[in-house]
Amino acid sequence: MAEGMGSLYFAIQRRRNRGLVGLYLVVGAFLVVYAFMFPGLLTIGGFSKFSQNWFPLALVTMAQALLMLNGGISLAIGPLVSLGAVVAALTMEGPAGVLGGLVAVVIVGLGIGAITGAIVAYMRLPAIIVTLAGSFIITGIALILLPRPGGFVPDWLSQLLAGHTPVAFGILILVVIGWKLFLATPLGTGIYAVGDNPVGAFRSGVPVERVRIVSFALSGLLAALAGLFVAAQTGSGDPVIGNPFTLNSIAGAVLGGVGFLGGKGAMRGAICGSLLLSVMINVMFFIGFPPVAQYVAQGVIIVGAVAIPEFARRWRKA
After folding, report:
1. How many angstroms separate the CA atoms of 139 and 276, rounded?
2. What is the per-residue pLDDT for 95?
3. Which of 18, 67, 142, 147 is in the most buried spot, having the most CB atoms within 10 Å?
């Protein structure tokens, strides 16, 4: 029995990886080019800085992919990053200290995510509309708490998370391990089922509403923690620093092969997509692309990442 389950598991993993081989090759090629252009990447310090730049993008891409796998999407990822940074910077300079700030960020991320998920699940409203409205509310709260960049993050925390050691990469590995453990639970398995066929999942006994609420809560937690890390990088909080992360999180997930309609893709692909996006931005910067050209190039690549597999699928059917 155990042998049969093991064979089924590896068969599923092979099927999920089949569409990611091309992505792995492209990411590998970009990494080789980047390492050639910036040899310092192969040193501890260079790898540390690179992983620190990639880390918040990886977290928000995971946050977005979590909802896309579940058949939803969030336009509030960026504002949640900003709010996480603001809450961290404000609470850490008070009597609560670093531990209190971490707890506050976790509560804010889980709480806002769970509330959003409950509205989507029980009121049957489209996630994109709920999160669009939520993005304005969250941005307003961040601006009320901290109208302009400020607050305080201890130097030792900034040095720990954004110093000359690859702590960020180690934390990312722990997050990925946590995701794998979560997937082994009934709620984790239910994410794919609800995203692929919510009616069938409900008839099979999957608690659809609970799965959606947990998905949004975990997504909010990842986005808020990304904000804490950004605050550690900058040494303060900024109520609008997370704005670019909303579209970049979608771009990373799409590049990683995660589908908009749910149930399609894998978190490993999303993480790899965020790595590709991060390396792509760095390579274009070193080549000398102006910021406007970088945005155009990113857009073209993202459209290609969506269109090429679709054309290939139609060609195979024909």
Report:
1. 28
2. 84
3. 67
| Distances in whole angstroms, Cα of residue 200 to Cα of each of 105, 117, 214, 266 | 36, 20, 19, 21
**Tokens (6 digits) for 104:** 């506050």
Q: How far apart, in whole angstroms, are the C-alpha atoms of residue 37 and residue 193?
A: 43
pLDDT value for 174: 96
> Which long-range contacts link 12-19 to residues 24+ away (Cβ below 8 Å)?
16/266, 16/268, 16/269, 17/266, 17/268, 19/257, 19/269, 19/309
Phi-psi region for residue 314, left (φ > 0), alpha (ψ -120 to 50) or beta? alpha
User: DSSP E strands: which ranges in the chain?
Assistant: none
Distances (CA, A) of 213 to 39, 202, 208, 280, 281: 45, 15, 9, 34, 33
Cβ-Cβ contacts under 8 Å for 301 (sequence gap 6 or more) = 255, 280
- β partners of residue 150: 237
Nearest to 175 by CA among 107, 244, 221, 231: 221
Q: Which residues contact 206 (CB under 8 A, 6 or more apart)?
A: 186, 190, 193, 194
The DSSP call for residue 235 is T
Among 79, 98, 114, residue whose Cα is nearest residue 151: 98
| C-alpha to C-alpha distance for 257 and 190, rounded to whole angstroms | 20
Tokens of 272: 């790899």
**Predicted structure pTM score:** 0.89
Q: For 38, list phi and psi in degrees, rounded to 5.
A: -135, 80
Amino acid at 174: L
Query: For 268-310, how does the pLDDT look when each residue is reduced to its tens digit (9 = 90+)?
Result: 999 999 999 999 888 887 777 777 777 787 777 777 766 766 6
How buried is residue 313: exposed, middle or buried, by Cβ count under 10 Å (0-12/13-18/19+)? Answer: exposed
**Local structure of 21: helix, strand or coil:** helix
